Amino acid sequence: MALTGIQIYKLLPQTNCKECGLPTCLAFAMKLAAKQVELAACPYVSEESKAKLAASAAPPIRLVTLKADGHEVKAGNEVVLFRHEKTFYHKPGLFVRLKAADPDLAAKVEAIENYTVNYVGMDFTVDGFALQADGDLAAAIETVRAASKRPLILIGEPQALESGLGALAGETPLLYAADSSNWEAMADLAAQHKCALAVRGASLDELADLTEKIKAKGVEDLVLDPGLNAEGRRVNMATWLARATQIRRLALKKNFRPLGYPLITFPAEHQDGAGEAVHAAQHIAKYAGFIVLDTFAPELLYPLLVLRENIYTDPQKPIQVQPELYEINAPSPDAPVLVTTNFSITYFAVANEVEGAGLPAWLVVTDAEGMSVLTAWAAGKFDAERIAKAVKDFKVAEKVRNRTLVIPGHVAVLSGELEEELPDWEIRVGPREAVDLPAFMKQALQTA
Ligand code: SF4
């Protein structure tokens, strides 16, 4: 747990020598607690105090990074239980499990590697592959690496995993999994090859006991699988959620280091009838770090990727597009001019409707600090003055001949003020919903 300024002060020399650039040790302690100075600025801190201060500064949930040739998947380092308290930082990595012995391995890897989907201007992909060592793992890794450089999770017993690790020098894969029967061999393997290591157990006590023993062997990057019962089967959805929440709570609220690690999940293995997609969605919401899917299907991946993006978007920073004049379907100078805000979803709702209908248009995207139309209007970020300023700043009048400006129907109230701000323009009130724009443009504006 982070120390207070007073607690830090007690660990300092208290000589007020000023060499750190601050007048007193207390001032330095306060700055250190606020993370505004580095501990190294004081040359007189004892080794014992340094160790205590470093331990208190460590994140309550360790950041674990899987690496491979420029690709990284990070999990952990979260600081809140609930997204609305602050934000969730590291999106859970979505991995697809493939079998080393699968004769179609190369084709499957290629299909997964090439999967990409665009959502409000962002390209989403799968993050990596989980390889089940049921055959020649070294050969399977070679097959994967021929088509993809994404990080790997290797699943199997220590001997089987060791055979493949020689081919992954310089990478940081995740080994799955150490348990009470094999933890020493797995820990040795992870330490020797500098891998992250997943740990599985049938209870939180068992997990905490294992992580302490493995950490003592020098393996720091651990990942927890809390999803098994005593018989080795997957627990149901309620039990998984309870365990994941307990782990998060213990790590954040009690600073319980033995469980301060990200989680790995296997949504398809739960046998409670909910199905892979529902379990995966729950794991995205709370609190997975790495999710291993058994199904590669766009209809499964797309909603999960979008859900993940929404859960891991900072609620205080809406996703935005650049305010500017956008051209849709190569508009001529006679094409109509539409206006909206720079909230990404609003922009894409408007742009996609018009583009999909094949209608040319100019789209003035105003800087509304990333808010949607009504929210921005209510907050005073989308008013006649701002719209007029955008029209002038983007030199719209120099690019178009017609002088018709279409504002969203939700802000019809702005039309009078806007006519005063832009006296050369005819202000038209468009529909409230983007879906109605094509019909409005064809009928009211008589756009071809
Ligand atoms: S350098 Fe260290 S001992 Fe000197 S005033 Fe700063 S904190 Fe205190």
What descriptors fit this protein?
alpha/beta; 3-methyladenine DNA Glycosylase II, Chain A, domain 3; TIM Barrel; Rossmann fold; eight-stranded parallel beta sheet; five-stranded mixed beta sheet; 17 helices; binds iron/sulfur cluster
Q: How is the quaternary structure best described?
A: single chain
The low-confidence runs, each spanning 5 or more residues with pLDDT under 50, are none
CATH architecture of the largest domain: Alpha-Beta Barrel
Total strand segments: 17
Tell me, what is the CATH class of the largest domain?
Alpha Beta
Q: What structural category characterises the helix and strand content?
A: alpha/beta
Task: Provide the CATH topology of the largest domain.
Answer: TIM Barrel
Number of separate structural domains: 3
The molecules bound to the chains, other than polymers, are: iron/sulfur cluster
Main sheet attributes: strand count, strand direction, barrel closure: 8 strands, parallel
CATH superfamily of the largest domain: Dihydropteroate synthase-like
Number of helices: 17
The Rg value, from CA coordinates, equals 28 Å
Q: What does this 3D model show about the protein?
A:
- By secondary structure, the protein is an alpha/beta fold.
- It folds into 3 domains: 5-57, 3-methyladenine DNA Glycosylase II, Chain A, domain 3; 64-311, TIM Barrel, CATH 3.20.20; 325-443, Rossmann fold.
- The protein has helices at residues 5-11, 25-33, 47-57, 105-114, 137-147, 158-165, 183-193, 204-216, 237-253, 276-285, 298-311, 344-356, 373-378, 384-393, 396-399, 415-421, 437-443, and strands spanning 64-68, 71-75, 93-99, 117-119, 122-124, 128-132, 152-155, 174-178, 196-200, 222-225, 263-265, 288-293, 325-328, 337-341, 361-366, 404-407, 426-429.
- The protein has an 8-stranded parallel sheet with strand order 10-9-8-7-6-3-12-11, with helices on one face.
- Helix 12 (344-356) links the parallel strand 14 and strand 15.
- Helix 1 packs across helix 2, helix 5 (137-147) crosses helix 6 (158-165) and helix 10 packs parallel to helix 11 (298-311).
- The longest helix has 17 residues, at 237-253.
- The protein is globular and about 75 Å long.
- The model has no long low-confidence stretch (mean pLDDT 93).
- The structure holds iron/sulfur cluster (SF4).
- Iron/sulfur cluster (SF4) binds at residues 12-13, 15-20, 22, 25, 28, 42, 44.
